[in-house]
Fold this protein.
Amino acid sequence: MEYVNFISETLIPRITEKEIVLDLFAGCGGLSLGFEAAGYKTIGYEMEPNAAETYRQNLNGNCTTVKLDTFFNYPDAQIIIGGPPCQPFSVGGHQLGMKDARDGFPIFIDAVRKLKPKVFMFENVRGLLYTNKWYFELIVEELKRLGYMVDYRLLNAVHFGVPQNRERLFVIGHKSQFQFPIREKIK
């Protein structure tokens, strides 16, 4: 119960910052929840209607139900976050990478190209670092060509106070400095 109380007090959406966060492939809003709890207004885009409705019910930001493409016109935002579909890269799937129609990285890169945010972040499965590492390297190089320094790390949620053993690849694009959070000591 102590953890539930901690989460209920910590993850309270409140807007205190002026920057707008655009959440692509938003799902139910897990990434947006963290940004809203840190004080940012979010705008989400998700093609699954039930997930978008969950986002709208639980966060301050709006989530539009839409299937994104490279012709989409985004509102102005200073931060872009997202979780491009992981099925093309998951070890539980066929790992077809860019040959999979669900590959969302061209859309994510297009949004960065159009909006030129101060910072961007995306997360994905660890499988992107193995069978499809060559594709991941192409993604990173393209983002660097857009003028960003790109840092990435495989992080496990359990090392950051979350009661879940879940590894995810986090990629941050910035123009000055970035440091990943320090892993918590397990008690």
Q: What stands out?
A: Helices lie at 2-10, 30-37, 49-58, 105-115, 133-145. The domain at 19-174 is CATH 3.40.50.150 (Rossmann fold).
